[in-house]
Specification:
Blueprint lengths: L2 H9 L5 H7 L3 E3 L12 E9 L5 E6 L1 E3 L8 H17 L6 E4 L5 H11 L2 E4 L1 E6 L8 E5 L10 E5 L2 E2 L3 H12 L3 E10 L5 E3 L5 E9 L13 H5 L3 E2 L6 H9 L1
Parallel strand pairs: 2-14, 5-6, 5-9, 9-11, 10-11, 11-13
Antiparallel strand pairs: 1-4, 2-3, 7-8, 12-13
Helix pairs in contact: 3-4
Length: 250
């Protein structure tokens, strides 16, 4: 058994999804003191809100699920893919293709498609305007490498479902081909939602390996406002993952 396989076997000794993610180095929880005060940095989430002054600010929280750390290990990724496929089968959801959302859903979509013997395709993100100190990046999704066929029943693969903003963009791409989105899958669903409601009012099930609703805050929420005002938070957690891991160990 090679080194990676040995490490994966050790990780998979526990079948709890959150423990597995933790062993892979992909789980951050802000440490707290005896009075529940935050002792480490908070983290920014993908979701945004209008602060009333025309600014779109990030929601923040004290927990982050970084599935990129887990997807490095084929055995771990397959465990999640099998669990997701079992859930799809239990719900009797038939599909022709799995489409990976960039970037987190791409590798996972390949494993689901392989196990289900279904076509696997993925979308890419095209940047329209780069991020600046005063504005966020603007982008849209495209399918440049692959395509769908009219009438295809499609499962969308993501790693972590947060605020479903990527899902809305992906739906537009899928509809443009005349295909139909029948389910959204993910390793972790922290959104608190079990259905995605489309602009037309249709409800699409969210199939996850781990259902884990996670609280998020506005930056002016009294629970986090002092921390945010002091700049003690990380807007892009994956870019400073080592800092977060060090803070949690301390």
């Amino acid at each position: 058994m090679n080194r990676i396989a040995t490490l994966a076997a050790q990780i998979l000794q526990d079948d709890d999804a959150l423990t597995i993610l933790h062993k892979c180095g992909g789980y951050y929880e802000c440490p707290k003191g005896s009075n529940d005060e935050y002792l480490g940095p908070l983290v920014g989430y993908a979701g945004r809100y209008d602060n009333g002054n025309g600014q779109q600010l990030q929601f923040v929280g004290d927990v982050y699920y970084n599935f990129a750390q887990a997807e490095r290990f084929p055995h771990v990724r397959e465990l999640f893919a099998r669990g997701i496929l079992d859930a799809l089968n239990n719900d009797k959801i038939d599909f022709d293709a799995v489409i990976g959302a960039p970037m987190g859903g791409i590798l996972l979509s390949g494993d689901i498609g392989r196990l289900a013997n279904r076509r696997t395709v993925f979308m890419e993100k095209k940047v329209d305007e780069v991020e600046t100190p005063t504005s966020r990046e603007k982008s849209h999704l495209i399918m440049d490498r692959h395509e769908l066929s009219s009438g295809d029943l499609v499962v969308l693969s993501e790693d972590v479902v947060n605020n479903l903003s990527t899902t809305g963009k992906a739906l537009e791409v899928i509809n443009a081909f005349g295909a139909k989105l029948v389910a959204i899958t993910c390793a972790f669903n922290r959104s608190g939602k079990k259905q995605f409601v489309t602009p037309s009012g249709a409800s699409i099930p969210i199939i996850c390996y781990k259902w884990i609703p996670t609280q998020q805050f506005r930056q002016d929420d009294p629970a986090v406002a002092t921390h945010i005002a002091q700049g003690y938070w990380v807007p892009k957690p994956k870019d400073h993952w080592g800092v977060l891991m060090t803070a949690m160990k301390r």
